Automatic annotation (TrEMBL):
Residues 55-64 have a biased composition (Basic and acidic residues). It comes from Streptomyces parvulus. Residues 1-57 form the DUF1918 domain. SUPFAM superfamilies: Cell growth inhibitor/plasmid maintenance toxic component. This is DUF1918 domain-containing protein. Residues 37-64 are annotated as: Disordered. It comes from the Bacteria. Pfam families: DUF1918 (PF08940). The lineage of its organism: Bacteria, Bacillati, Actinomycetota, Actinomycetes, Kitasatosporales. InterPro entries: DUF1918.
Length: 64
């Protein structure tokens, strides 16, 4: 898993009825885009995250 600052981290709900948790990666703490990441979630909570298999990275579009 590789990410850059500004990408979205999406943690999918693991049980029926649980919503996905979406956050913006504000800092990459690992080498060459690897975890852990500092993430600011939609509810304002910020934390360090080492994503598991229920997580995806949505890369931001690069403007030319």
């Amino acid at each position: 898993m590789h990410a850059t600052k500004g990408d979205q981290l999406v943690q999918h709900g693991r049980v029926v009825g649980e919503h996905d948790k979406v956050g913006e990666i504000v800092e990459v703490l690992g080498e060459r885009g690897s975890p852990p990441y500092r993430v600011r979630f939609e509810d304002g909570h910020e934390g360090v995250c080492s994503p598991g298999p229920d997580t995806e990275i949505r890369h931001r579009e690069i403007q030319l």
